[in-house]
Amino acid sequence: SQTIHQWPATLVQPVGSPLSLECTVEGTSNPNLYWYRQAAGRGLQLLFYSIGIDQISSEVPQNLSASRPQDRQFILSSKKLLLSDSGFYLCAWSPPQLRGRDEQFFGPGTRLTVL
Amino acid sequence: AQSVTQLGSHVSVSEGALVLLRCNYSSSVPPYLFWYVQYPNQGLQLLLKYTSAATLVKGINGFEAEFKKSETSFHLTKPSAHMSDAAEYFCAASILTDSWGKLQFGAGTQVVVTP
Residue ranges of chain B with pLDDT lower than 70? Predict the structure, then answer.
């Protein structure tokens, strides 16, 4: 069966510090991968999505970036965090052969607080 | 552009009462539709999905939803609310014209269950 992991689970970082959040998927190959953010009191905002290694698209221009160094690994990074980067970050995957026709499976999330 | 609208950001129901959460989509082509549930500080979990088969879809935890093309709706119901149903619920629609498998999420509805 497939599983998705995210770490760390919680993170408190000062403004201006770097960020690296990691997401890995097990039990599937060539998944579509997604990064979402939930700010307090707001819905899900799609940040990045990827259909393969080195195939990443950004939805929202910001100081965040994403990389996919391996097929089932998706990393969210920032060189300098802003207060507005605080939120709950969710990674998700979906099967590659059913694009747009199947659900996305979500990880447990990372709670990021920028002080 | 496709959009998903959830009517009511907060819903309060009594334990044992009907739960009704409303979702409408705007799309020229009926999309695939999903309902997710999110408990505090957790990822999203799929409740049910509509993929152009039966219009009445049954999901987990006693929830069901009915797809109505004429009303462009996919409302979620549960006959009798339990305290454990307190959570946030998201409706989502697939963007079938998008080859990258993105989902369009509604803003979410927070459900509170009172004794």
Answer: 1, 96-101
Q: Measuring CA to CA, how many Å separate A7 from each of A112, B56, B77, B94?
A: 11, 38, 34, 27
- Find the closest chain B residue to A107 by CA distance: B43
Q: What is the pLDDT of residues A9-42, one digit of tens each?
A: 999 999 999 999 999 999 999 999 999 999 877 7
A108 at the B interface (CB within 8 A)?
Answer: yes
A32 to B101: CB separation less than 8 angstroms, yes or no? yes
A109 and B42: CB-CB below 8 Å? yes
pLDDT above 90 covers a percentage of chain A that reads: 75
Where do the DSSP E strands lie in A1-115? 3-7, 10-13, 19-26, 32-38, 44-52, 55-58, 64-70, 73-78, 87-94, 105-106, 110-114
